[in-house]
Amino acid sequence: MKFNIKVGILLTKTLYLMRHGQTLFNRLHRIQGASDSPLTEQGIADAKRVGDYFKRHAIKFDHAYCSTQERASDTLELVTDQPYERLKGIKEWEFGVFEGESEVLNPKPDPERQSHGDFFLQYGGENDFQVQDRVVKTLTAIMERPDNQQVLAVSHGGASFMFLRRWLSMDEIKRRQIRFENCAVFKFSYDDGKFMFESVHNLDDPE
């Protein structure tokens, strides 16, 4: 933990990792990845609801970030009007030639890695560990910045899933019934290069 000697208090760093709002491809059940599609009316409305949720609970951010994809930056701009930085490291999992195709073409999970594993590598995409490593590296770097105490980062479903998998086992994710819905907000505490999952808020959850 960071200790402020001057005022004698313990400062806990906090990351709020949010998935973008619903997009056209989400609604059509198409694989999105590195490609992009616009937010739907529901996606816009839901992002605004998250902004209202933060206001009601007096949750404020000293810095905000999003991926380089428009669906993430558009979501962030609906949540808050504060300045932000776009980061390639938290963009969505790349699925190669499968992007834009129906989600029914997604492979069954690798039985050992309990994810898509290496499947998309042969089609010009990424594997699970590549996604996880870049997301963890990027979010760790921003939380290590001295003036970053309470941070908002808007990313994507696959990227957020692989980030969470670094800190929780798949069995634990299932036990806690953690969902990766559009506009889900994952709260993590951060200390000494490690994140600890605290909670997740979906729009239909009770407050």
UniProtKB/TrEMBL annotation:
GO terms for molecular function: phosphatase activity. Substrate binds at residues 19-26, 71. One of its GO terms (cellular component) is cytoplasm. SMART domains: PGAM (SM00855). It comes from Lactiplantibacillus xiangfangensis. This is Phosphoglycerate mutase.
